[in-house]
């Protein structure tokens, strides 16, 4: 009986959360933490936890598509994971290999036109896993309905260091001039495939750190971060909706701050030159939401009256 009550409450809460959120993020990146602790909690070994986590990954892919999210990045195997003992590492490689082939042949992947991409130092992986990566990427290369990035042998610091080295080599060889070193030049050298800026990072398992995950794409975009307690195999649609709610709360706060800064700027400029203030306000209105644009216009009108007096 109590199980039925809990399920009913969860479904009701999920509906409430669904009504609370709006458009949501475009790109969600997830640190799938807690597989081994989940296995120990249930009396199993690490591979049991990874298998349970693989099912959660499939569920999250479905939920993201339903919610209109366009890109999902899963932190599946970090460069630090190579330090794990072989009896843990090899079954994990087996599972990733199997899932890549399974996804590459899945009807739902092809029906939804999901493009599968691996990011990270894939050359460090065993041959059999690299072959699975190549197969999944080639089978979905022509799709653009949804993007699934699988971070394998990935480390954010190593990625940035590699990009910096590539930029230095390009400048040294004359391929790139120092004046042309910009965000785009770094973006092109960051990973095997382009990745959108990250809007929301979610970490499961209770730890509150982002573990060297997509630092360029997340920090540069001031991504929202949501830490939650459930181990990755326990992660639910409600947890995903909570993460999206965190993202939207941060966006609303950011827009308010941006509007306040815009109004302050108009005030400062208006004290110097009203004509310049109008030009600045015009540009700001194009970049702000309608509510922010109305505030800027109101402040400009107020300043115009004060200066006319």
Automatic annotation (TrEMBL):
InterPro entries: UPP_synth-like (IPR001441), UPP_synth-like_CS (IPR018520), UPP_synth-like_sf (IPR036424). GO terms for molecular function: ditrans,polycis-polyprenyl diphosphate synthase [(2E,6E)-farnesyl diphosphate specific] activity; magnesium ion binding. It catalyses: geranylgeranyl diphosphate + 7 isopentenyl diphosphate = tri-trans,hepta-cis-undecaprenyl diphosphate + 7 diphosphate. Substrate binds at residues 34-37, 50, 78-80, 82, 84, 203, 209-211. It is an enzyme of class 2 (transferase). Mg(2+) binds at residues 33, 222. Keywords: Magnesium, Metal-binding, Transferase. Catalyzes the sequential condensation of isopentenyl diphosphate (IPP) with geranylgeranyl diphosphate (GGPP) to yield (2Z,6Z,10Z,14Z,18Z,22Z,26Z,30E,34E,38E)-undecaprenyl diphosphate (tritrans,heptacis-UPP). It is probably the precursor of glycosyl carrier lipids. Homodimer. This is Tritrans,polycis-undecaprenyl-diphosphate synthase (geranylgeranyl-diphosphate specific). It comes from Haloferax mediterranei (strain ATCC 33500 / DSM 1411 / JCM 8866 / NBRC 14739 / NCIMB 2177 / R-4).
